[in-house]
Structure formats: C-alpha cells, structure tokens
Predict the structure of Lipoprotein.
Amino acid sequence: MQIKLKVATAVLISLSLFGCGSEEEQNASAPQTHAKTYEITLPGGDTLNASGDSFKAYEQDSPNGKVKNYEIYTKSVAKAAENSVYMQLKELGFKRSVMEDSAKQYKIHYKKDGVSTIGAIYIENGESSAPTTKMKMYFSES
C-alpha cells in the first residue's frame, strides 16, 4: 500500500512539473512591447524620459512666446502614465497640482520656482483590458 502511495505521489509531482519551464523560457514566450524612451528637455534644462509607442514634438506661437508641445501614446492607464512622469519631476524639485480629474481627462500642472509651469493632459482610451493613454505635455520656452 505504501509503495502505491509513493508511486502515485511521484506521478502527481511529475505531472505538476510537466508544464513548468525555466523562467527564461516563460519570459521568452511572453509578448514583447515596442515602447521606446523619449527625452524631453524641460524649462530650465532638466530632462524627462518618457516611454511610449509614438512621440510627436512641435512648437506653437503664443502671445507670450513659443510653447513647446509633446504628445506621447503609451499602453497604460492614465494615472500610471502620470505617476511615471511625476516621480521623475519630483526628483527634479517639481510639485504637482491636479487641475482636473474626470472620466474624460486627467490634467496636471507641475511647478518649480524659477521655471515655466509644465502642463500635462492624460487622456485614456481603449478597452479596460488594453488601455491606451495619450499624454500631451506643454510649456512656455524660457
């Protein structure tokens, strides 16, 4: 009886380990993301690294001078994308003010003494299982 129990236990353990591969093998079969890292030069000369699937930079004229604009699309929820940006800006001495937190958009102002305020709007689209966020960041050139 004990031999049958030991054999049955050994078979069950073998079957449970059958589908397990090394961690490297499992990670290799996981889908790879194509996000790239983009560098944004901020007012005052600091840089921000933003990750996304696409990136667009352009300038606009305004009554107060030129406004730099950046658009980045990323595969994440809006607040996660914003948190990634804010953690870097916080290290650079910026403080965050939430201007709007609605179902349509998440709008933030980042402020630091001596430099232009950075505005950012995060708009989340897509399915809840595959969200996409458009981040638009803008600031006056100093």
In short: The mean pLDDT is 81.
